[in-house]
Amino acid sequence: MITPLYARAMAAYNSEMNRRMYAAAARMTDTARREDGGLFWGSLHRTLCHVMWGDEMWMARFDGSMKPTVKLKDSGRLFERFDDLAAARAVADRKIEAWAYGLTEAEIARTLTWFSGATNTKRAAPMGLLIAHFFNHQTHHRGQAHALITRAGEDLGDTDLFVLVPEELFDPM
Fold this sequence. Notes:
Oligomer: single chain
CATH class: Mainly Alpha
Largest sheet: 2 strands, antiparallel
Number of helices: 7
Structural class: mainly alpha
CATH superfamily: dinb family like domain
């Protein structure tokens, strides 16, 4: 069962991992960030753009904020400049953390209905499942990006959730 505490912990983890990932990516050349690394979205830059696109799309569904300005197929080109992407990422992470801190059990228990452009259908699913998907999507693509960053000789340091997330966000079960 997804809880507000889970969402807060995952939001904090997401923010910290993005800080580390973007700092490492910033030390790389733009050419290296844009080189096709064999990922689904090709390059590190395109993968980070796609993650940002996904976060914007899900947050639009979760809180009614603005949807991304491009379609899924173009999500890898959401931002042309890395500096603009990095700045938007920092803002998005603060927004995600604030949203997570506002979640209640009742909000998590509700069903969310939305139109999916990916499947071209109206969809409905439990909010808790969608929150898990939201954070899983970030982690999935961040793992791919991490591999390219490591291949480029950069180090993100420890990436274990229990090391990076403040203890007060652990469920005391």
